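Hi P.,

Sorry for the delay on this. The queue was packed all week, but I finally got your sequence through. Input first:
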Amino acid sequence: MTDETLFVLANNSVVPAWALLVALPRWRWTVRLVHSGLPVALLVPLYAWLIFFDSPGPTNASFFTLQGVMNIFTTPRTVIGCWVHYLVFDLFVGSWIARDAQRFGIGHVFVAPLLLLTLMFGPVGLAAYLLLRLAMRRRTTLVEMVQPADVASP
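Then the structure:
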């Protein structure tokens, strides 16, 4: 499989989940599929394979200097792996936004454009949602209430 095909497959793999979040956020299959962690479970093995088994892999890579980080992005497989990293985390954040908006009764008509913004520009979409949430519900905390059923007994 070519690197380009691998990139296209990985990139397109999250489109159904995003479409469900935007178009059918309360549908039972959206909850079962998108909020289940299934997209993460499917993409993480690809991510790990791309990042840990890239051969020959980036040379002089480091997380501690700008040049070292730039060197990380020098092989196609590592770049695809880093892109999968974005795909997984942006979808996780979008999924959280959708659930959080439902929890606080924020209309989906306001949230849907911010989900698209999160898909394209993750942190900007998250910040926009948090501002919307602050304006509409006066909520600043990200702490979610723990339900008694969620706490395991000793």
